[in-house]
User: What shape does this take?
Amino acid sequence: MKNVTLCPDGKYRWTYEMKILRNPSIFLLVWKILFFVILGIFCFVIIFDIAEWGFKPDRMLETAKFLGYFIIGMTVLTVLAYLLYAAIMGGKYIVDFTLDENGVIHSQTPSQAKKAKKIGALAAAVGAMAGRPSAAGAGLAATRTVMSTDFSRVKSVKAFRRRNLIKVNQTLSKNQVYVCDEDFDFVFEYIVSHVPETAKIKN
Assistant: This one.
């Protein structure tokens, strides 16, 4: 192992430094959060319209077009916000990992965690004042700088080697574990060997 260290307490620990603009993992995570929040709102609007006015293809088409434009606008704003985030963080996302037979803990380094919490709190406040629940939700999500995963509750494990990423997914939680090329196989196999046999594995 190159960067993963077995500590005296029996836990494996390592620090991963990711260049934000070269690895799209964080951007894709934020974009998906916003997309599904917006999609949920539009689905509610469509259901309400059908219940109120009946099924009207023309009205549905207009709603779909508006959704498309809205998603394009959201994507542009997300890109700009992501570039600002990268600049504030110095172009790097630095995270510490702790791994043992019970689970894995993902925690942003203290200096970056303080910045992330301030950014997230500001985004949540601005989104709330602007009446935009998607922005507020994404802001609140950004304030979370520590994530713990219990292996006994894991539903799936997915490897994305090009992004040095292992996604460890529970029902309502998706932990993103980053690890360098040299240690990737060890960490992936360790996680897979400790999750339930019913968990879906993608390598």
In short: The longest strand covers residues 12-19. The chain has a mean pLDDT of 84. The chain has one domain: 5-202. The beta strands are 5-6, 12-19, 92-99, 103-108, 146-150, 156-160, 165-169, 174-178, 200-202.
